[in-house]
Amino acid sequence: AVCSLSGRLSQQTFDSPSDKPQFPGASAEFVDQLEFIQPNVISGIPVYRVMDRKGQIINPSEDPKLSKETVLKFYQKMTLLNTMDRILYESQRQGRISFYMTNYGEEGTHVGSAAALEPSDLVFGQYREAGVLMYRGFPLDLFMAQCYANADDLGKGRQMPVHYGSKELNFVTISSPLATQIPQAAGAAYAMKTLNSNRAVICYFGEGAASEGDAHAGFNFSATLECPIIFFCRNNGYAISTPTNEQYRGDGIAARGPGYGMMSIRVDGNDVFAVYNATREARRRAVAENQPFLIEAMTYRIGHHSTSDDSSAYRSVDEVNYWDKQDHPISRLRHYMTARGWWAEDEERSWRKQSRQLVMEAFEKAERRLKPRPEWLFTDVYDENPTGLQKQQEALQRHLEQYKEHYPLDLYDK
Ligand SMILES: Cc1ncc(C[n+]2csc(CCOP(=O)(O)OP(=O)(O)O)c2C)c(N)n1
Ligand SMILES: *[C@@H]1O[C@H](CO)[C@@H](O)[C@H](O)[C@H]1NC(C)=O
Ligand SMILES: *[C@@H]1O[C@H](CO)[C@@H](O)[C@H](O)[C@H]1NC(C)=O
Ligand SMILES: [Mg+2]
After folding, report:
1. According to the UniProt entry, which residue ranges have a biased composition of type Polar residues (predicted)?
2. In the structure, which protein residues have their CB atom closer than 6 angstroms to any atom of ligand 2?
3. Which of 12, 69, 87, 154 is found 20 to 30 A from 317 (Cα to Cα)?
4. Is residue 380 domain-shared with residue 288, that is, in the same domain?
């Protein structure tokens, strides 16, 4: 299912007078018929899947046959992410936090790919991959602390909500400017290769971010420098309000792989096993062969782009309902579990209750916690602050002392 194009051009030999093209830029044959290459020579790169929409395994040899314990873990992480999204989305609507982005509909791409990696593999995310971090063990308390920008936040409250990061879990902190993570990830993968570390890098991005020039630089450097990296594109149909049919004319993102000399595959992102299998194989080969892989996971963004967006302005309720009700990664996995007798109404009910409780406890704790010390605004960039920053810090201090009554300083850590 992996479509390949030999990216490595062999150096030609000049000893025999052959009638083959000798140009150094491509390995090819001469032809004497004028023919333009059709962009659709293969009519649509196929979508690899393991399960059908009802959770039935299509080809038993592709069944990853994961243990009951592992499958239940997948399901619990996917649904816990859902519950956390609901509570944090509501928190923003109620004015408790400033911003939020949900992951609805993309849970299968997160959990399937995260489970296929080694914990030491380095993750670069975009912003809609909270499930990857959750699968790695990031606790609810820290998700909440980040969104609430409280004193427990690892980033000390200096980032917008959903900009998580964890050094311990090898998850590089999210940054908002689109696609900046792509060349950074390529560089990190190059470092891993030179260190012979047996580690891979995975770099997540949306199909919209793939339009940035940085995507081009990252893909080409990874291919030419032969880096152990997995480019994981979540093609969820939209870049905010721009649908994919206005974003590009080629066959999605996977079709660009061969142009860079990269192994590429398109998978059903709502099939957690297909995502798992593809990522696992890509990870194994990326490290064994030092080469980049491109995975395009087809999925659908069920929620609004963010809390600053109202998607009813540019798409129909029927369209959203189709994905929510008929082709959802969580219900597909649940069908699979139910068919094996691993899960039934009782388990569902008690897990829903328990997961909601876990999220609510973390949420209440985060809300009660103090805000980070204002001085932390000025730390962690310079070893010793330059005089300009020192002056700003002193000015802030004077201002806060002079106008204390206007600031809720008792809510801040001392
Ligand atoms: C360089 C840059 N340009 C524009 C934006 C504004 N912006 C934020 S998210 C987004 C859409 C990205 O879409 P996609 O990559 O498909 O990810 P998705 O939101 O669908 O998960 C845009 C245009 C930005 N953050 N950075
Ligand atoms: C999917 O996983 C199963 C079990 O591990 C394996 O037999 C199969 O070859 C995998 N498919 C791919 C494409 O890796
Ligand atoms: C690809 O990367 C190589 C370095 O590895 C660089 O020399 C070349 O200019 C790049 N080409 C493109 C098309 O970006
Ligand atoms: Mg998108």
Report:
1. 7-16
2. 1, 61-62, 64-65, 277, 281
3. 87
4. no
